[in-house]
Amino acid sequence: MENGDRVARRVVEYEDGAGHPPSPSPGCPEAADYTLAALTLRPGLPAALSESCSSRLILCYSHHSTVERDCREFIGVPSHKHHKMGSYLEEMKAYFQTHNKHKEYVGHNSKVHTIGWNADGRRLASGSYDKCVTIFLFDGHRETLRKDYTYKGHGDSVDQLCWHPTHSEQLTSASGDKTVRIWDTRTHKCSATINTKGENINITWSPDGQTIAVGNKEDLVSFIDVRTHKIKHENQFKFEVNELCWNNTNDLFYLTNAQSGHGYIHVYNYPEMELVHWIHAHPGNCICIKFEPRGRYFATGSADALVSIWDAQELYCMRTLPRLEWPVRTLSFSHDGQLLASGSEDLTVDIAHVATGEKVAHISIANPTFTLAWHPRHFLLAYACDDKDDRDRDRDAGTVKLWGLGERS
C-alpha cells in the first residue's frame, strides 16, 4: 500500500478482544471525518478512509481524485471534499425544512393498501380495497401527479403490487380473489391472469425479471414464470409468512415471519429454496423487509415497533431505530440508499439517516400509514394512510400523498 493508493482490507473482528476499534492507518488524517455502515467491498477497490461502525472493515483513503470518485460511487458516500457524512445529514435536515409540503391525489373509492413507483419514476401505481389498480403520471418539472388510468378486473381487494424491475410498462398485482394479474401500461390491458390456491397478500418481482413470487394467507409461496404465466413451483411453510423478496443478485430469497410470537428472517438459496440462514431478528412479529437500492443492506420492521438495519453480506444487525411506538408496517429506502422511511400505526412517518440512525425529518399524519415508497430519482415520498373522507367520516378517502415538495410546488 504505497503512494497513498491504499487498498481496502477486511478485518474479521477486533483482535485485542476488548472491543476497541483498530487504529487508523498512518498518514490518513481524515479518519475521524467518516463513519460508515458495514460495506461489502470488491477485492482491490481503493476506498475513502474510514472505520466502519460495524468494526468489520478498515477503509483507507486515496488522494487521487479518480480513486475517490470510484469509491464514492461504489459505497454511496457523498463527495469527500463537499459532502462528508456529517454534512450530508445536516444538509438533508436543512433540505426537508424547506421541502416538507405535500399534495393529495384521489385515486380510489376506498382505502389504498399499496403503492409503488416504476423503474424510471414516471409512473406511480396504487392498489386499493376497491379492487382496482390506478396509475398516476409523474411530472418531474412540476413535481405533481396526474391520474392516468384505472385497471379493473380483480374480484377482491388489491393488497400488494410491484413493477417489473427494468421494464417500466409492466406491473403485477396480488388480490384476495386468488389471482395474480400482470398489467401493461402501453395497452391499458391485463396481459395475463394467473390463478393461485389462496387469497394473496404479498408479491415481489425477481431482479432478473423472470419470476414473480406471491404469498397467500395460508403461507403458501408460489413462483410464477413470467414468460409462460404458469406456476413453476410452490413452497408451503409451517410458519406465518409476512413479506418476501429477493436479494439484488437473485440468488437468495428472504422471508419475514413469526414463530411463537417472535420475529425471524429466513434466507433461502434460489432457485433451490434450501434454507441457508435463520435469524432471530425481533422479539415481536417481523412484518416487513426492504433492500437498499444497491443491495448492500436491508431493513426490517416489526410488531415490537423497532426498525432494524442489516448488513446483507454478513447478516448482522448494524443498528436499530427506536422512535416509533406501534408495529412497523412499511419501509422504503431513498434512491441514494442513505435515507430510510418507516411507516406504522403511529401518527408520524419517520425518516432516518441510514449510516447513523439519526432522524432527518418526520411527517405528521392524521391516520396510520399503510404503505410508502420513495421516488427512484428524487427525494419525494409517496404514501397512503387509513384516511377518511372529509365530508363523510364513515367513508374511506382512497387518497395518495406526495411529500417532499418545496414552497413553489
TrEMBL record:
Q: Which UniProt keywords apply?
A: Repeat, WD repeat
Q: Where is the signal peptide?
A: none
Please give a single GO biological process term from the UniProt record.
Answer: mRNA export from nucleus
InterPro entries in the record: Tex1/THOC3, WD40/YVTN_repeat-like_dom_sf, WD40_repeat_CS, WD40_repeat_dom_sf, WD40_rpt
Q: Extract the coiled-coil ranges from the record.
A: none
Keyword Repeat in record = yes
WD repeat extents = 105-136, 151-193, 279-320
This protein's GO CC annotations = THO complex part of transcription export complex
Give the family this protein belongs to, as stated in its UniProt record: Belongs to the THOC3 family.
Provide the protein name. THO complex subunit 3
Species assigned in the record: Petrolisthes manimaculis
Taxonomy of origin reads: Eukaryota, Metazoa, Ecdysozoa, Arthropoda, Crustacea
